[in-house]
Amino acid sequence: MKAAPQAQLRLIDLQDLDSSLDRLAHRRRTLPELAEIERLEGRLTELRDAIVAAETEVGDLQREQKKAEQDVDQVRTRADRDRTRLDSGQVTSAKDLSSLQAEIESLHRRQSDLEEVVLEIMERTEAAEGKVAALRADRSAAQDELSGLTGRRDTAQREIDEEAGTTSAARTAVAKDVPDDLLALYEKLRGQFGGVGAAKLFRGACQGCHLALNTVDLNNIRAAAEDEVVRCEECRRILVRTPESGL
Q1: For residue 89, pLDDT beyond 90
Q2: What is the DSSP pairing of strand 230-231 with strand 205-206?
Q3: How much is the average pLDDT of 102-110?
Q4: Please, are residues 111 and 72 in contact by the beta-carbon 8 Å criterion?
Q5: How many C-beta neighbours within 10 Å does residue 217 have?
Q6: Is 178 helix (H, G, I), strand (E, B) or coil?
Q7: What is the DSSP string of 207-226?
Q8: 173: Cβ–Cβ under 8 A, 6 or more apart, which residues?
Q9: pLDDT, mean of residues 151-167
């Protein structure tokens, strides 16, 4: 392949710009805020599930408490009814009186037991409600932190995108100075060799693979015409000759 020496030199400018674009893309993908955002989003998902579970527990306890309070009311109503019968004087039989008094005492004990149950459920409900409040506070703090991180990420990405836009514009201008066939080869090699398709020959070494060329290869390059596009025998990238090539 043939290309004017100046066009070959423009490949180095193009490579520098492409390397800058690659670095910018890597920075954008690896912003520290991205990992923190992912961590916080996972934390918020955990908190959301925990809040749902805690709220469900509160709801279950509230229903349980309501049922226990209804049981207390039923026992109290029955005891009040029996006490009214006892106080009315309608029951005159000693046996019936004794039985009624025993039932009232049993109902009082039952009421006391049920009231203890209600108190125990109330304590559990209070603890569960406290857990919900704490989880909601954690969620609010995580959301605030996520909002701050998102803002910093957006700012960093915007700055990177602006720099990438300027660099891309410069690349477009430089690419116009490179013949289509040489540009196509360069792009192909860039895809094959980690984003580096062209490199300087500097003091007898390829700056793409950083290996020194042997004497035979250097002699072949010395003998090549100035417009001949030469390749590194080690890495096969395009070698661009400069006054510092050591030829």
Answers
A1: no
A2: unpaired
A3: 87
A4: yes
A5: 19
A6: coil
A7: TTT--BPPHHHHHHHHHS-T
A8: none
A9: 97
List Cβ neighbours of 152 (8 Å cut-off, separation of 6 or more).
33
The DSSP string of 105-132 is: HHHHHHHHHHHHHHHHHHHHHHHHHHHH
3-state secondary structure of 242: coil
Nearest to 132 by CA among 47, 208, 233, 228: 47
pTM, two decimals, is: 0.74
Tokens at 56, concatenated: 């469900």
Tokens read off for 114: 């049920």
Q: Reply yes or no on whether the pLDDT at 93 is more than 90.
A: no
DSSP 44-79: HHHHHHHHHHHHHHHHHHHHHHHHHHHHHHHHHHHH
User: Do residues 53 and 158 lie in contact, with contact meaning Cβ atoms separated by under 8 Å?
Assistant: no
Q: Could you tell me what percentage of the chain is helix, strand and coil, using 3-state DSSP and rounding each to the nearest 5? A: 75, 5, 20
- For residues 138 and 154, give the distance between their C-alpha atoms in angstroms, rounded to a whole number: 24
Q: Tell me what percent of the residues of the chain surpass a pLDDT of 90.
A: 83
User: Running DSSP on this structure, what letter comes out for residue 243?
Assistant: T
Output the CA–CA distances (angstroms, integers) from residue 215 to 201, 218, 233, 246, in the order listed: 14, 5, 12, 11
What's the residue count for the chain?
247
Q: Sign of the C-alpha dihedral, residues 115, 119, 120, 125?
A: positive
Q: Half-sphere exposure of 188 toward its Cβ, with a 13 Å CA cutoff? A: 8
Question: Looking at residues 211-225, what average pLDDT do you find?
Answer: 93
* Cα–Cα nearest to 244, from 186, 182, 183, 201: 201
pLDDT number for residue 91: 62
